[in-house]
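Ticket #4471: structure output looks truncated?

Reporter: J.K.
Steps to reproduce: submitted the chain below (386 residues) through the standard prediction queue, then opened the result file.
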Amino acid sequence: MIQMKMTREEFLKPVRSMEVLAVATIGFLGFRNWDQKRTYHRTNSSNALVGHVETDPVVSKLSVSLTGYVNSLSLLRDEYASAYRHVRMVPVVVPSGKGRVTIQMRPETYWSEEKNIPKHSEIDQWLATSKILLEKGEYLKTPELIDITRLQSVAIKAEKGDATSQKILTTVIYGTLAGATLMYEEAFALLTKGYSSYQESLESISLPHEVKRRDVIKLISGLAGVLVASGINYGIDQSLSQGEKKLKTLVTTVDLETKLTASQLISNYFERDLGSMISLVESQINTSADALGKGVSEAKVSGAMKQFQQSASELSSTLKEIANNSDFNEALGYYSACGTATQKLSNASAGEERLANMAVVFEGLGVTTVMGLLITLGERYNLSHR
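Returned output as attached by the reporter:
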């Protein structure tokens, strides 16, 4: 532990009341936030759920096909990495200070795919796209899926923010800010001069008139922080007070969006229509077939590519069946609309909850920024007018 020979209080007596007031303003903000549980609104869809959607033949078959498709692509990517990804050591020039450099050997990854097969970057792109489709397909099986025909049963309820996280965040934010305001001269002296010259550095910036000006700067920055915090609080409280209205409006908007055709509903949810999905998968099948036709020397890569071809063909057949069967098409359109509605209402509710629980963080960031700016500018003026 660092033992200080002299404290700043020994440079100036009596007790520096303005510095105490500056810290008190921060304490006031911390006290105000300590037990403040903000009210927010969220949707309650317990009376508007689809229920047992996982047993629907369309959703179930699509899920199985997408799962097989993604798993086979993941296997293909793993076999690519095993066969074609290598590591070598390469020399790298590293600055070592004072205009000198050193040569260090560092590992570098490189790929050596066969000429007639897709590059690993293309396989990566296929896999990323397939995972998005699978994620959306699996989401349709969530127990919380909202029935779009029962949107009128979605209720809006008021909740209170999490008290525990509020206390923790308040303590961390304003405790740190108070400590930094009170002791930043000591920290500055220690960081700039180190322990050996700490006392000398502290004394050099702690002349009585400098300390007096510094206390004024701290007090002004603290009061400015209170004003900024009040503005941020007002804006957040106003936004949260409109939460119920915003969610009701969103429910109405979502209800209107469900009136689209099945094809449009599918396209909105999956972010591509069935025709586009079929074309994507068929293109991958053709690319794989071309590579296999020309020959793949790595047996495991060849086997994984054949397995992927089979899984992709099964997915293509499933998508075509849904596209060509009006009942299946309507069913997927309905569930897609349910998925879109559930995601939008869930995200909006989560946003309201996040705003309520993170309000103290937004406030703390604003206060820290303003106080830091004013103290920095004030300290520059202080040290330039010695």
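Triage note (M.O.): checked the attachment and the full token line is present. The chain has eleven helices and four strands.
Status: closed, working as intended.
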